Amino acid sequence: TSNTMWGGRFAAGPDAIMEAINASIGFDQRMAAQDIAGSRAHAAMLGATNILTDTDVEAIREGLLTVLSEIEGGDFKFSTALEDIHMNVESRLKEIIGEPAGRLHTGRSRNDQVATDFKLWVRDQFDAAEAGLLALIHALLGQAEAGADWVMPGFTHLQVAQPVTWGHHMMAYVEMFGRDLSRVRDARARMNTSPLGAAALAGTSFPIDRHMTAKALGFDAPAANSLDAVSDRDFALEFLSVASISAMHLSRFAEELVIWSSAQFRFVALSDRFSTGSSIMPQKKNPDAAELIRAKVGRIYGANTGLMMVMKGLPLTYSKDMQEDKEQVFDAADSWMLAMAAMEGMVKDMTANRESLAVAAASGFSTATDLADWLVRVLGMPFRDAHHVTGTLVGMAESKGCDLPDLSLDDMQSVHQHITADVFDVLGVQNSVNSRISYGGTAPAQVREQIKRWKEILA
Ligand code: ARG
C-alpha cells in the first residue's frame, strides 16, 4: 500500500531497502519536542489568521499536547514506515483527533518544518554550550585564584622556557574558553531567524503570519528568503565549527593534564572521582577522562567535515542529502557537552602540586633570560651579546651538572668580568615571575588583575 502522507500518485509502497535508506525516525525523534513546539506555533497562527477555525486549532493544540506527553512518557510507538518525526507526530495526531489533523500542514512543508525543528534543537545546544563554558571558566578561575603566585615552568617546544605562575596558565585557558563563549553567543544571535512559513521553498499563497510564528518560537525574525530558509544548514555548520574550535582547546588542556599527572611531571593530582584504575597494575591511577576528551574531539571534527561535505555540492533548495545533517550534529553536541562537563569536573577536583611545580620551575635554566636581561639593564650590554654570554654560562652550568644559581661569582666572572654578586637576585624563580609586570604578563599582580577583570565580565 502506498504512503498515506504522500502516496496519492503511487500505486505501490516502497521497497524495504528504500524504507531503510529513507527513514530518519531512528535519530530525528530527538527533535520531537521541537517538532511539536513548531506545530503548535503554526496551528495557533493558522487560527489567528482565520485560515483554520478555532475549533480545529483547539483540537490540534490538545492533540499535540497528548502526543508530546506520550513521547515524553516513553509509550509512543515510532514507525519507520512513517519516515521521520514530522510524519510520526502528524499520523498519531490523526489517530487522536481525526480530520483536523490533516489541516495542520496547511501553508507548511516538511522542508520548512525540519529546518525549524533543527534550528530550535541547535539553539538549545548553543545555550547548553554557553552554560558548560561558563561553568568551566568558573572552575578555572578557582584554580587561578588559589595559585596566582605559584611558580611553574613555562614551556615552548615542551622545553623549559621561562618560569610562569600557575594562575597565569589557568587564566590562559580562561581567555580561550572565553572566546569560545563569545563565538557561541555570536553564532546563536546570527542563527536566530525562523524558517517556518517558507513552506516547500517558495513561500505560500495562504495569508500566514510568519512574524507571529517566529515570535512564538523565540526567533528574532522570520528568515528573509524562503529559498535560503529551507536550503541552508550554515547554522549547524557554525555550531560544529564553534564546537570544533572549543574542542581543540579542551583537547590541548586534556593533553596537558595527561602529561602533568604522570609520575615524571607530578604537576597535578587528579581526583579519584575523575580517574580510573588498572585491573592488573595496582599502583595505577589513569587520567582516562582527559584522554577521552582528547579523543572525542575527533568525532566533532569528523562531524564538521562530514556536514561540510554533505552540503558543498547541493543545488538550491532542499535535497534529501540534508537529512544527513542531524546525526553529525547530535553526536558532536553530545561529545562536546560531555567533554566540557568532564573537564569542569577534573579542573574543580584537581590538586596542583605546588612543590613539584616550584622544583620544575627552577630547573632547565629557566631564568637564563632574566640573566641576559640583567646584563643588558645593569651592564648596558647589547642584547645579542648578553644572549651569547648567558649561553656560555648555561653551557658551563650544564657541564658542571648544576643550575645557573649554583654557579659561583668566580665562574660568572670567568665568562664576563663585570658581572657582580647582585646578578643572583634575578636568578631566583620567584623574582623572575614577580618581575614580569607588563600588561598580561605572568607576575602574580598581573594575574590577579586578569582574574578581577574576568569576574567583572562574568558578573
Ligand atoms: N526527514 C527529512 C529531513 O530530515 C524531513 C524533510 C523531508 N522533506 C522532503 N521534501 N522529503 O530532512
From TrEMBL:
Every Fumarate lyase N-terminal domain range: 8-302
Pathway(s) per entry: Amino-acid biosynthesis; L-arginine biosynthesis; L-arginine from L-ornithine and carbamoyl phosphate: step 3/3
Keywords on record: Amino-acid biosynthesis, Arginine biosynthesis, Cytoplasm, Lyase
Catalyzed reactions per annotation: 2-(N(omega)-L-arginino)succinate = fumarate + L-arginine
EC number: 4.3.2.1
Coiled coil: none
Cellular component GO terms, alphabetical: cytosol
GO biological process terms held by the UniProt record: L-arginine biosynthetic process via ornithine
GO molecular function: argininosuccinate lyase activity
Domain of life: Bacteria
The protein's enzyme class: lyase
Keyword flag Zinc-finger: no
CDD domains for the chain: Argininosuccinate_lyase
A Pfam short name: ASL_C2
Record's subcellular location: Cytoplasm
Domain Argininosuccinate lyase C-terminal: 365-434
Family annotation (PANTHER family): ARGININOSUCCINATE LYASE
Family according to the record: Belongs to the lyase 1 family. Argininosuccinate lyase subfamily.
Protein name, as recorded: Argininosuccinate lyase
